[in-house]
Structure formats: C-alpha cells, structure tokens
Amino acid sequence: MNLFKSTERKLHEDKEIELVVAEMNAGYVDDVAYAKAFKKAKGNADYAKSIYIDERLYRIKEIFPLQQQKEQLARQKANFTEQERLLALELEKLHKKQKNAQADIKEFNRWSLLSFLFFAGLTVSLFLIGETQLAIFGLLATCVCVLVFVVWDMVLQNRVQSIDDEIQRKQNTKKSSSSLLLFLVLAGTVIWLIY
Hints:
Layout: H1 2-25, H2 31-40, H3 45-128, H4 132-194
Helix pairs in contact: 2-3, 3-4
C-alpha cells in the first residue's frame, strides 16, 4: 500500500514538473522564482534554470493556495455586500409597511371615535325623546361597536408589533453580518501581511 502511495506521489510530482516545463516552453517565466533561482545559482544561468523549476514549484504550492484564499475572501466580501444591500431593501420595505400600519391605526381610531360618538349620540337622543326601547337597542349597538373597536385595535397593534419585531431581527442580522465582514477583512489583511 505504501509503495502505491509513493508511486502516486511521484506521478503527481512529475505532472507538476511537466506544468512548469510547459510554462517555460510557452514563454512564461515567474520573475520572482527566476530571481531566487539566479541568486542561488550565483549567476550561472544554466544552473539557475534547474533551480528555477524547484522555485516555481514551491511558489505554485505555497503562493497559489494563498491567492485562492484571497480570491475567496474577495468573493465572500462581495457576497456580504450584496446581502447587506438586499437586507437594506428589506428594511426599507418593512419601514414602509410599518408606516402604513401606523397610518391604518390612526385612520381606524378616527373612524371608531366618530362611530362611537354617532351611536352614543343616537342612544342619548332616543332616550331623551322617550323611545326607551330604541335607546336600549342603541346602547347595545354602541357596546357591540366598542367591543369590535377594541378587538380590531388589538389586531392592528399586533400587526405593528410584528413589523417592529421583524425590523429588529433584520437590524440584528445586519449588525452580525457587518461583524463577520469585518472579521473576514481583518483575516484577509493578516494573511496578506504574513505572505
């Protein structure tokens, strides 16, 4: 089993060397790897070419994953920026919904007060003119209206409260995603500084 792994590793290393040779044949030279190889070869260009392969392989193995991490961090940052934009749009919609619900409550309160005053005035008028049975009916109608008004007001208040809760959740999400974005940017900066 160990022999199989070492053979597989050797084949992998051969493929890596083929990649560097193909780059060289295509005219691509990693200037940093070549400068390091030339320095180690102490100016001998032929010896520098053989050292270049090792330097280039090192840079591919060490630098390429780092570049991939940087690119992944950039993609994540862009993704978070898009998520924040969408979150801001959702918050804007919720604020409009909240404003409309509060306007509905004001309108309802106005109509409920007018209705109550109408039924109460009708009841008092009927009582004053001696129509006691109709006045009692008017009083019952007034009580039913008040009961409906109280229940509907509770429904509207619950709607506003649920919108307020949703806004609070979205704002907390925005704060936590901003913290995560800050962490990713700091981590990317640290990685960049190290390498």
